[in-house]
């Protein structure tokens, strides 16, 4: 089945029917970035929040020079915290190292936990050591999901010096926190990681124990 042309998608994005616009956005996955981004921009201010969210996500997937400044502007100025969180997430997918600083600012300055969570996840996706300090502070968040994101991100940036601060979560009451820790330690080869993972391999939650087993195997293959 032939994919619609960019002209057809553009016309569909102008449709008064919100479902048409959603379908058109989904069809842009088949369109080269340089052609897709101008079309995505048409619905960045759509009246339907879900369409705006889809458009922001699409900017993180379609890499052109236009995407980065648009996403930073949305992260820093959009009135809707969901869109700010989407922009933070898209910056992680975009993979542009310039995104580290605005994501760090968002973590410190945005009052909405969802934005801060999304910023922490994206800092891990960018794998940039400049994120170390903010991620260590995120470990002390009152929001458990932010703790989870910070632990995972520390594993992604492979910060060996952060092993000690995250080991305290080996006995967290939240099994997802323990699972994120087990996964992160698999990227942090050290005697402390081996010891913690052997302990966590006996965790009473299957997914934590399995994550620890997989990480032990990964560490064993890396030495």
Automatic annotation (TrEMBL):
Gene3D superfamilies: Leucine-rich Repeat Variant. SMART domains: EZ_HEAT (SM00567). GO terms for cellular component: phycobilisome. InterPro entries: ARM-like, ARM-type_fold, PBS_lyase_HEAT. The keyword Aminoacyl-tRNA synthetase does not apply. It comes from the Bacteria. GO terms for molecular function: lyase activity; oxidoreductase activity. The keyword Lyase applies. Keywords: Antenna complex, Lyase, Phycobilisome. Pfam families: HEAT_2. Belongs to the CpcE/RpcE/PecE family. This is HEAT repeat domain-containing protein. The lineage of its organism: Bacteria, Bacillati, Cyanobacteriota, Cyanophyceae, Nostocales.
């Amino acid at each position: 089945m032939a994919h619609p042309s960019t002209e057809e998608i553009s016309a569909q994005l102008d449709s008064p029917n919100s479902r048409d616009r959603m379908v058109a956005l989904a069809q842009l996955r088949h369109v080269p970035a340089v052609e897709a981004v101008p079309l995505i921009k048409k619905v960045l201010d759509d009246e339907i929040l879900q369409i705006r969210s889809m458009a922001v996500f699409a900017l993180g997937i379609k890499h052109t020079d236009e995407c980065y400044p648009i996403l930073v502007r949305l992260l820093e100025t959009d009135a809707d915290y969901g869109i700010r969180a989407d922009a933070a997430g898209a910056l992680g997918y975009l993979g542009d190292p310039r995104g580290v600083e605005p994501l760090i600012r968002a973590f410190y300055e945005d009052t909405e936990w969802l934005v801060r969570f999304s910023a922490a996840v994206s800092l891990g996706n960018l794998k940039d050591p400049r994120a170390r300090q903010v991620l260590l502070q995120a470990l002390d968040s009152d929001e458990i999901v932010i703790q989870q994101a910070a632990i995972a991100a520390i594993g992604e940036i492979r910060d060996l010096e952060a092993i000690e601060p995250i080991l305290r979560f080996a006995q967290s009451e939240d099994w997802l926190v323990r699972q994120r820790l087990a996964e992160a330690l698999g990227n942090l080869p050290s005697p402390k990681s081996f010891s913690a993972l052997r302990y966590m391999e006996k965790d009473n939650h299957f997914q934590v124990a399995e994550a620890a087993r997989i990480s032990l195997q990964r560490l064993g293959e890396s030495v």
